[in-house]
TrEMBL record:
Protein source organism: Cryobacterium zongtaii
Keyword flag Metal-binding: yes
Classification lineage: Bacteria, Bacillati, Actinomycetota, Actinomycetes, Micrococcales
Domain Enoyl reductase (ER), first and last residues per copy: 5-330
Database matches in SUPFAM superfamilies: GroES-like, NAD(P)-binding Rossmann-fold domains
Protein name: IMP dehydrogenase
InterPro entries, per database record: ADH-like_C, ADH-like_N, ADH_Zn_CS, ER, GroES-like_sf, NAD(P)-bd_dom_sf
Amino acid sequence: MYAPGDVRVEDRQDPTILEPTDAIIRLTATCICGSDLWPYRGVEPVDHTAMGHEYVGIVEEIGDAVQTVKVGDFVVGSFVLSDNTCEICRAGFQSRCEHAEFASGMQAEKARIPLADGTLVATPGQPDADLIPSLLAASDVLGTGWFAAVAAETGPGKTVAVVGDGAVGLMAILAAKQLGAERIIAMSRHPERQKLARFYGATDIVEERGDEGVARIKELTGGLGAHSVVEAVGTQESFMQAVGATRGGGHLGYVGVNYDVQIPGIQLFFAGIHTLGGPAPVRRFLPNLIQLIWDRAIDPGKVFDLTLPIEEAAEGYRAMDERRATKVLLTF
Ligand SMILES: [Zn+2]
C-alpha cells in the first residue's frame, strides 16, 4: 500500500532466512482483513507498506534452530508472531508475547516467518482444496472471534450477544455455538449477513443499534442483559452498546480495533461487568481450531464472499471498503 487508497501488486525480492528461528513459506492463499482498511482509509499511517497478516502455506525452508515444522509441512500461523515459550505465552496470551511482532507482508507469494516454532502449527497432512479458506480463517478472524467468545465466558446455558456482523462477529457466533451457548443474539441489519449469522448458530437477530439495540437485548433477556457480549466493531456506538447489553456481573469480550472510542469511567463503573479484549492470542487456539476444521466440524471458510487472484488485490480492497464484500480471499 503506497498510500491510503493506493494498493499495487509488484514484484519484490524473495524472502530469505535471516535468523535460525525463521521459516520461509510459499503461501497457498491469503486475504484482506477488516483492519487493513484502517491504513486504506488513512486512519493508520501507511507508506509503501507490505500488507497482509493472514496466511497458510507450505514450508519451503527452515532455519537451523526450527524444530516443530519441517520442509513440506502445510502450516497455519497466527497474525502475531510469538515464541510460545515466555511466561506470557505460557499463560495463553501469545499476542502479548515478550517477543511479539505483528505479521506483515503476507499478501505475497512467499513470506519469512520469524519465530517459526512458536508461531506456526502444521496441519495433520496436506489439506483438501476446499479446506483452505477455513484454515486461512483460523489465522485471524476465526481465532479472534473464538478468543472474543472465550473472553466473554461463553458457555452452556449462556445468552450471548454479538455486536458486529463482519467476519469476526460471524466467527464469534460460530465459536459461541461450539462452546455450547444456549441463545445467540446477532446484532445485524444486513440480510445477507443475517443469513450467515443464522447458519453459524444465531438464534435471534436484533437490527436496532445504540440505546435501542441495548433496550432490545434487555427485552429479550428478562430485563437483565446478556451473560456474554462480544464487541467486534470498534466504534463509540458499538462499544457502548456492548457495555450496555452486558448484564451486571456478566462478561464483555472486545476485539474490534477501537482507535477513537472514549469510555466514560462512570458508565463502566456502574455497569459492574468483567471486560477482556485486545489482539487475540490466536496461537493458543490454533491446534484445536485446525482439528475442528480437519474433522469438518466447523466451516469458517464461508466468511469469504469474494475470491480474486492476487493481481487484483486493489479491487479486493475497494470491494471491502465499499462493503461489497465481507472478506476477500486472494489466490495465486
Ligand atoms: Zn512469548
